[in-house]
Amino acid sequence: MRHLLSAADLTRDEAVHVLDTAEAMAATQQREIKKLPTLRGRTVVNLFFEDSTRTRISFEAAAKRLSADVINFSAKGSSVSKGESLKDTALTLEAMGADAVVVRHHASGAPHRLANSGWINGAVVNAGDGTHEHPTQALLDAFTMRRRLCEGDITGQDLSGRRILIVGDVLHSRVARSNVLLLRTLGAEVTLVSPPTLLPVGTDAWPCSTSYDFDAELPKADAVMMLRVQRERMNASFFPSVREYSRRYGLDGRRVALLPDHAIVMHPGPMNRGLEITADAADSARSTIVEQVANGVSVRMAVLYLLLSGEQPDLQGEVVAP
Amino acid sequence: MNRARTVLEAPDIQRALTRIAHELLEHNKGSANLVLLGIPTRGVALAQRLAERIASVEGTVVPHGSLDVTMYRDDLRRHPVRPLERTNIPETGIDGKVVVLVDDVLFSGRTVRAALDALSDVGRPSVVRLAVLVDRGHRELPIRADHVGKNLPTSLTERVSVRLLEYDGADEIVLSEPGSDAAGVA
Q: Of A18, A249, B96, B115, which is the most exposed, with the fewest CB atoms less than 10 Å away?
């Protein structure tokens, strides 16, 4: 693994390897001393062109637990607000000796551009680009599902045969796309449940099925993942009213009761309580929402470890001894 | 070209482990406070076997587990990414205990240094001891073993392969020259 740009880039074995590595990382986070010396002397830059609390903090915690130096760069209050281009920002980071750049950008494809332009030498991790992808979120969701749904020694296991519902605003969600791709790679069956107006064009080509009837899908689900209704990205009216949306596509206590006993309720956060999920569903015993945040640190530690700990290839792809 | 030769057969390995188990008990004056931690991969099985032998002599079960040292190694940047192994600390913990690190081959001493660092992040043992099946010399750090199954003088170019029933289907220690058919690096 050289960069982590898309969940689609991971093979089944690579994805399982990330999850197994994350399990080892999670075990170290139970200790009194959580810091590991593994990435001492490496520099990780968090390059955030878009607001984010949990993803940035999660990456920062992950890098610091592995003893890497962390530089946080947010577009607000930086030269980007003076009109600096992505290229010049990247060259600046390269000059500062960044070994990895964790990038969130409002434009889909920005991390890909950063990784393949030759502007920087380090590894690029996509922390969310536009409405395209958010691969570490998909990995932490898969990690959470594997922990909750698989039994016995989960090392090496994938999610084959599990049925996952992804519900809500798929159109504006990068989490949904990354999850569909990764869960399919891991062998799960994914169903998107969403009003037609909030399904992006072309989902018939995605490796999943779609449904408009939430209640009918619930009894066969192993996990139901609620997506946030991204009102800040909505420039048209996608549903008649908030009340109608909640009634047809919101998760409440009645719908939770329709789930099988072992099924879990997930949400990538931040939640709109009362819109896509009610408080009693979000706070129920089968909700993994807080657990997902903790798992996010372990998964991001695993990603940084796998990208940064070994010998580093130079720009021509040759291996150079440090 | 095959210049591999078996330097320890299965009965030799069993005798060496039995002796180490007795040495541990003698030195510790019993099995109280002992915790055996194997260094993956083969150290884990050796720690398990030592625990079984101690149980058969003393009748008490000694806590044993594994300690992965990968993230504490000083050569991570000289190799492709290493997969992480399992760390399994017994529930009794290691604070105030006599921890015995168990590994198959003692060579440069760098693995043991990493293990000592890893150990200090897990807890604070009262004593740390080191038991190895083979000491092949060529230390690069001021580290020595307290209990050695077999001192094996080697040249730097030779390979020592420890094969154990649990992983390789047979118990033997093979010394080979590079270029020979023997697999595995010590």
A: B96
Alpha-carbon span A318 to B10, nearest angstrom: 44
A31 closest CB neighbour out of B68, B79, B122: B122
Residue with tokens 């002599």: B57
The one-letter code for the residue type at B14 is Q
CA distance B125 to A77: 49
pLDDT band at B186 (very low <50, low <70, confident <90, very high): very low
Q: pTM for the complete prediction?
A: 0.92
| Separation between Cα atoms, residue A191 and residue A263, nearest integer Å | 15
Within 8 A of B87 by CB-CB distance, chain A residues are 24, 27-28
Give the domains, in start order, of chain B with CATH numbers.
10-155 (3.40.50.2020)
**Contact criterion met (CB < 8 Å) for A33 and B85:** no
Q: What is the pLDDT of residue A233?
A: 81
pLDDT confidence bin for B182, thresholds 50/70/90: very low
Count of residues in chain A: 322
- How many residues are listed for chain B in this entry? 186
Residue range A284-293, pLDDT digits in tens: 999 999 999 9
State which amino acid sits at residue B152. L
What is the set of domains in chain A, with CATH numbers?
Answer: 7-134+294-320 (3.40.50.1370), 135-289 (3.40.50.1370)
Question: Which tens digits make up the pLDDT trace of B138-147?
Answer: 999 999 999 9
- Taking contacts as CB-CB distances below 8 angstroms, the residues of chain A near B72 are 36-38
**The predicted structure's pLDDT at residue A58:** 97
- CB A157: neighbour CB atoms within 10 A? 17
Q: Do B85 and A37 touch (CB under 8 A)?
A: no
Nearest to A259 by CA among A213, A214, A228: A214
Q: Point out the residue among A24, A32, A310 whose CB comes nearest to the CB of B84.
A: A24
Q: B16 φ, ψ to 5°? A: -60, -45
Judging contacts by C-beta atoms under 8 Å, the chain A residues touching residue B86 are 24, 27, 155
What distance in Å separates the CA atoms of residue A135 and residue A127, rounded to the nearest whole number?
7
Interface ipTM: 0.87
